[in-house]
Amino acid sequence: MAADIIVPTLGESVTSATIARWIKKAGEAVAADEPVVELETDKVTVEVNAPAAGVLSEVIAAEGAEVEVGALLGRVDAAGVAAPIKEAAPAPVAGVHAPQAAPGPVGRPGVAPLPSAAKLIEENNLGSAAIPGTAKDGRISKGDVLEFLAKPAAPAAALAAPKAPRALEAREERVKMTRLRKTIANRLKEAQNTAAMLTTFNEVDMSAIMGLRAEYKDSFEKKHKGVRLGFNGFFVKAVCAALQEFPAVNAEIDGDDIIYKKFVHMGIAVGGASGLVVPVIRDADQKSIAEIEAEIAGFAKAAKEGTLKLEQLSGGTFSITNGGVYGSLMSTPILNPPQSAILGMHKIQDRPIAINGQVVIRPMMYLAASYDHRIIDGREAVSFLVRVKESLEDPRRLLLQI
Questions:
Q1: Where are the domains of the chain?
Q2: Where do the H-state alpha helices sit in 84-206?
Q3: Shortest CA distance to 147 belongs to which of 161, 135, 160?
Q4: How large is the greatest C-alpha to C-alpha distance in the chain, in angstroms?
Q5: Has 377 been annotated as catalytic?
Q6: Whole-angstrom distance, CA of residue 361 vs CA of residue 359
Q7: CA nearest neighbour of 76 among 109, 35, 110, 116
Q8: Beta-strand pair 257-259/358-372
Q9: What is the fold of 2-77?
Q10: 77 is catalytic
Q11: How do beta strands 275-277 and 66-68 pair?
Q12: Choosing from 33, 97, 137, 373, which is the catalytic residue?
């Protein structure tokens, strides 16, 4: 009996994926729940497991093809005897309707765009545009069309002859951008193009936080079974407290409306093998410092191993990024749409400052809050950042909620 391998639900707002590679080949034996194919989405790489033990009897969707949620990828002969082995051809992907070739010289001549791309081409009347195809065999993917649409309008003559890749010089290497990297680039450019983004700065004396860590880190780690006491837990709690006072900083724009959130899903930027990702601590405002630190440690480990789940990367309402771990002294963080603000942490550095008329050396950190001025006024942004600073310099304020 044959068992179908289908594209699973890919998470919030993700409707398609690219087949990165087949882990198993047609004719090979597979165990139940063993990974057989790897999909690359706009956010993470996802492994699809075999629905039953047996033999991978048919590979329907080829590597490089773009597939929709629910599309048929292949089949496993659960009886354990391979049917006549069928390898996928670089033809239309099963599980989605075979596309009609778009009129005009779109992409590689004679090669139809992928189904989701064909729909976008038709909707945007791009039948005569030359869209470079980056999927397998030069086929045009949905991402190729979106990238084409995002480019500034060019003269018709230029559209007919896209610029060829430049020749490489000695000791240069050309590496194709991953789908994740292209998505990061497009989203960040979108933030610059759509948001009225400004950044406000302040600095925080980290003496109180560092003193607490030094005094309690050992007992904290012992009580919470190996969870280390870091800086992020304090920052998350300080931000959550400030967001309660300034809800616009935690809101988002939806058309002509503003959506206010009565919860905080905190995005924490972490470096992964494929680039920067922002997993989300859900209901961070309801969690303890120990719970927050444990989740962040888990995110960092999963990001390095490439095992973050799609549901961990969606739904954030505010984000924190820490360039200080790489040595950054100051930066202007960029928004993570549809969020309206982001906080940047930086390197802690001993600096001379004046306190009560005396010059003293203190561990100081610059803070940067970038925000969308369409929804957040300068007064709110500055006041929000000041409240974060006050909570960090006197953590007792968090306990007393003042």
A1: 2-77, 198-400
A2: 115-123, 142-150, 156-160, 179-194
A3: 135
A4: 86
A5: yes
A6: 7
A7: 35
A8: unpaired
A9: OB fold (Dihydrolipoamide Acetyltransferase, E2P) (2.40.50)
A10: no
A11: unpaired
A12: 373
User: Can you spell out the DSSP letters for 50-118?
Assistant: -SSSEEEEEE-SPTT-EEETT-EEEEEETTSSPPSPBPPPSSPPTTSPPPPPPSSS-SSTT-PPPHHHH
User: Is residue 67 within 8 Å of 16, Cβ to Cβ?
Assistant: yes
pLDDT tens, per residue, the chain with 402 residues:
788 999 888 765 677 888 888 999 988 999 988 999 988 876 677 889 999 899 999 899 888 888 888 899 999 988 755 444 455 555 444 344 434 444 443 555 556 777 667 777 877 777 656 788 776 667 787 777 777 877 665 444 444 455 678 888 888 998 888 776 777 777 778 788 888 999 999 999 999 999 999 999 999 999 999 999 999 999 999 999 999 999 999 999 998 899 999 999 999 999 876 677 899 999 999 999 999 999 999 999 998 888 888 788 889 999 999 999 899 999 999 998 889 999 999 999 999 999 999 999 999 999 999 999 999 999 999 999 999 999 999 998 888 777
Topology annotation, domain 198-400: Chloramphenicol Acetyltransferase (3.30.559)
Two tokens at 237? 């709690």
Q: In the chain, what is the straight-line distance between the N-terminal and C-terminal CA atoms, in Å?
A: 65
Q: Which residues lie across from 349 on neighbouring strands?
A: 364
Catalytic choice (77, 205, 377, 394): 377
Give the list of residues 6+ apart from residue 359 with CB closer than 8 angstroms, or none.
352, 353
